[in-house]
Amino acid sequence: MAPLTLELSPEVLRQLERCAQQRGIQPTAIAQEILERELGERTRERDLGSEGIRIRSALRKAGLTRPVSRRLVDKYVRVRDPRSRSRVRQRLQQKRFEPTLSEIIVEDRGQH
Fold first, then answer.
1. 3-state percent helix, strand, coil for the chain, nearest multiple of 5
2. Is the pTM of this model over 0.90?
């Protein structure tokens, strides 16, 4: 990794330190997560094209998306053992969201 020096306002620095303290990690790790998440999201949106950007923007505005923490990525995405991956997939398949995205779309279109 390459080093990066940032100048932050005192208020932003306090918020960063408070967040880091609550999560029990270094402020630099929080800053790195924020940058990777923001830049990664922009890259994904660029790859999706304008339709993908519009969809993602609508989902974000509706509060239907949220960033995935590094802890969850490490726990669920980077699982190396095939048996563990299988168990994780089974647990994730059992999760249900209410209302479903289909129900939200139908309601939004007024097609009750």
1. 70, 0, 30
2. no
**DSSP H or E segment with residue 28:** helix 27-61
**Domain-by-domain residue ranges, the chain?**
10-109
Mean pLDDT of all residues in 77-88 = 68
Taking residue 30's Cβ as centre, other Cβ atoms within 10 Å add up to 20
pLDDT tens sequence across 5-59: 889 999 999 999 998 888 888 888 888 888 887 777 666 656 666 677 777 778 8
- Which amino acid, one-letter code, is at 65? T
The H helix count followed by the E strand count for the chain is: 5, 0
Cα 96 to Cα 48: distance, rounded to the nearest angstrom: 26
Interatomic CA distance for residues 53 and 59, integer angstroms: 10
For 20, the 3-state DSSP assignment is: helix
Q: Could you give the CA distance from residue 80 to residue 76 in angstroms, rounded to a whole number? A: 10
